[in-house]
Amino acid sequence: MQRKMILAMDLDGCIGKDDGLPWRLRADMLRFKRLTVGEGNNAVLMGRTTWESLPEAYRPLNNRLNIVVTRNQEYTVEGVKIASSIEKGLALAEEKESEVCWIIGGANVYEQCRELVEEVHVTMVETNDSGEIRVGLFTEDYWEKEVVETVPSDDKNEHETTYMILRRRS
Q1: How many other CB atoms are found less than 10 A from the CB of residue 49?
Q2: What is the dihedral sign for C-alpha 31, 34, 37, 38?
Q3: Banded model confidence at residue 109, pLDDT cuts 50, 70, 90
Q4: Where residue 54 sits, what CATH number does that domain have?
Q5: CA-to-CA distance for 51 and 111, rounded, in angstroms?
Q6: What is the C-alpha separation between 30 and 113, in angstroms, rounded?
């Protein structure tokens, strides 16, 4: 099973604001869905706060095994697998023979998984200081960068974005 991370962040490493995304980026949302669904046998692993920030109409994320990591042993959600740790969440994805386990947030989960993934799919939002939730930046010392696409701002994409794939250097 492959392990990949996917996130959108601004130039300062901001990924969230007020328990949600700081921007409206339709192109990024469509890419997120296409990548994380894949051929239909993928998992998405997220922390409880990220799960709860998803709009109810989209929970659980269709056509993907949804895994929520929480320390709260009483936490249950219909249609979702609950794991008490990142390692147990990854093991659940492996047991279900997921092709890719996508790490989708939040900041704490990203930081814990940084050393566990082969690829990081980043949408760099061309703005600064978008919110209060941040992750560390990915330096070229450890990651090779492939720029895939630039999307200009328009009525459905609040800011210009650059989509790139980072692959761990050997």
Answers
A1: 17
A2: negative
A3: very high
A4: 3.40.430.10
A5: 17
A6: 24
If you average pLDDT over residues 135-141, what whole number do you get? Answer: 84
Q: Which residues on adjacent β-strands are paired with residue 100?
A: 2
Single-letter amino acid code for the residue at 89: G
Asked whether 93 and 66 are in contact (CB, 8 A), the reply is no
Distance, CA of 118 to CA of 128 (rounded, Å):
27
The pLDDT of residue 23: 94
- Does this model's pTM top 0.85? yes
Is pLDDT of 43 > 90?
Answer: yes
CA 49 to chain centre: 13
The pLDDT, as a whole number, for residue 11 is: 94
Higher pLDDT, 169 or 140: 169
Residue 106: which of 27, 64, 47, 22 has the closest Cα? Answer: 47
End-to-end C-alpha distance for the chain, whole angstroms: 19
Look up the domain containing 62 and give its range: 2-168
Task: Work out how many domains the chain is built from and give that number.
Answer: 1
- Strands across the sheet containing 81-83: 81-83, 64-69, 42-47, 100-105, 2-10, 119-125, 161-168, 143-151
Q: Which residues pair with 144 in a beta bridge?
A: 167
Q: Are 161 and 27 in contact (CB under 8 A)?
A: yes
Confidence band for 88, pLDDT divided at 50, 70 and 90: very high
